[in-house]
Amino acid sequence: MISKEDKMERSSIKRLMGLMSMLLAFWLPVLAQQDFYTITGTVKSQDTGKRLPYVNITVPHEHVSTVTNADGQFLLKTHQRPESLTLTHVGYRTRKYPLGDNLEKLEITLSPTVVMLSEIIVNSGNPRDILKAAVEKIPHNYSNKPELFRGFYRETTQRGRRYIYVGEAAIDLYKSSYDRPISYDRVRIDKARRLISTRQTDTLGAKVQGGPTLPVYVDMVKNVNELFSDTEMMHYDYQLEDPTYIDDRPQLVIAMRPRITVDYPLYFGKIYIDRATLAFSRIELELDMSDRDKATRVMLVHKPIGVRFKPKSMHLVATYSLDEGLSRINYVQSSSEFNCDWKRKLFHSSYHVTAEMVVTDRYPEARSISSRSSFNNRASLYDKVELFEDPDFWGSDNIIEPTDNLLKAIDKLKKKIGRDQQP
Predict the structure, then answer these.
(1) Residue ranges in 90-229 assigned as alpha helix (H)
(2) Are 87 and 55 in contact (CB under 8 A)?
């Protein structure tokens, strides 16, 4: 039975996952004092040599963590010199990598796991029943106490292959216990910065509504009624796929696809569930784009008059890490692609908007965040942050290392802004 309060709090992922509004406007690494250790490197697959994106990297016996970027690169800062790193990735063996005297430009490889046929046989069963059992186990697998996390948030907009906007923030994330609705969760921006293209041709940009509150609304384990209520589950067909490993733990993999048509778009997806505990480890969703009008109502909040919006794709990833017997939100990403053109104009522009957050630390005490200081889920980081440049801006904060392409784009944006500001 869903309470009245829960119904009010079901601010649907169908409206809040990566929501963005279009605006018409002329848009006009980073180290601090060495009171911390900086570890950098690249993670690759041992058998193919391919760089591995979004590998989870932690310091053993501490709560410090980050993920590799899309190029498999990482940067991690710690106040105490660690003896080793722990690296986990879906489908690969967990590796404890010892650190020697050199802490920079490390080359680390992960070996794929091999799932035996006997495990596939053991995993046979009804996927819908497995999902329901995982939902029932949420109170046992996730925290029943409030917790406070440190996180790094980044959002980018690309027009074609060129970046026209980059926004970053260090955030504090207050997660209430998993038996309370998401209205008790809060996000506060500690510090942030942005860079925006000043090209006269870049008159159309995208704002991510809610921005840094992304980890609140896409935490599908806590916001369970959005995807795993009895009603929602009746909208989908489920199928067990070959199992895999995350953090050396066997995972049940359940594929989902729409089975009926409703008045809002559904999702294709994969759900990874820890076989031993039935905790959700990873959720991947892709918006059904078969009805473009429905997809547009999910993705678009507002656009200027005269602009035609054509959605192409929308993806979501949420991952959870096991720590001290409990699973916790670890990384989220929302990615959207669409085309825009002006009426009476022949050519259109393609846009790619990405928002991601990684939990970089966990505070020992869960100090609450007041509603006054929290980020509003209807606001955008674009409107809240001013342009500036400070080489020591991030200090000891952990960030998601920018990809090579993003680093080059940031340099170009800085130079262009600098030229435009010259008298």
Answers:
(1) 117-122, 127-136, 138-141, 214-217
(2) yes
Low-confidence ranges of the chain (pLDDT < 70): 1-34, 115-124, 200, 344-347, 387-389, 416-423
SS3 404: helix
Which amino acid, one-letter code, is at 84?
A: S
Alpha-carbon distance 228 to 86, whole Å? 32
Q: 159, exposed or middle or buried, with CB in 10 Å at 0-12, 13-18, 19+? A: buried
pTM here?
Answer: 0.88
Query: pLDDT tens, 75-130?
Result: 999 999 999 999 999 999 999 999 999 999 999 999 999 766 455 444 557 999 99
d(CA 186, CA 373): 9
Q: CB–CB of 265/295 below 8 Å?
A: yes
What does DSSP say about strands 267-274 and 236-246: parallel, antiparallel, or unpaired? unpaired
Q: What is the pLDDT of residue 273?
A: 97
CA distance 283 to 116: 23
Please state the φ and ψ torsions of residue 295, each to the nearest 5 degrees.
-60, -40
Find where tokens 């105490």 sit. 80
Q: What is the dihedral of CA 194, 199, 201, 206, to 10 degrees?
A: 0
Q: Name the one residue in this structure whose structure tokens are 């473009």.
A: 292
State whether residue 400 is helix, strand or coil: coil
Measured CA to CA, the distance from residue 258 to residue 353 in angstroms comes to 25
